[in-house]
Amino acid sequence: MKPLKNSILAALIVNILFIAPLRAEIVERIVAYVDDYAITKSELNKTLMDMRESLDKITEEEAVNALINRVLLLKEAKKMKLDPPESNQIKEYIDIKIKSLIFIREEDLQRYYDSNKGTFKNIPFASVKDKIEQLLIEEETNRRLQDHLQLLRNKAYIKIQLTPLKRQ
Fold it and tell me: Which residue positions in the chain have pLDDT lower than 70?
């Protein structure tokens, strides 16, 4: 009876040590690396769902790039020791690093007003000046942010792995 128990125990140990690990499956897949940070498939899926609420046709690649940009900006914001939450850190970082350096000249405001008079429908320049300034600042912020992100991307190690897994 004792040899039977030992052989069953040995078979169980062999099964646990050698056969069970062969049946392991991937729990979380990495879709991109940004320096030492891994972006997971579940993060990508959540971002895709969130982005599709406002943008119908967003691809996985666009969502991964948005996540990469977010990681890069958060990393820079943390270097500046900005306070959480993360969404505020990014906004604050952009306000300090980019937006605060933008100045729109009076003649640029007037030029925009003159070239878009049809949009303003005889509303005096003084009444729309602040809105024009906000619009031009936002456009310039976006342009400079794209340039800044490109610089950050050039300095970072980024690897995107969006190819689907092959089932066996």
Answer: 1-27, 164-168
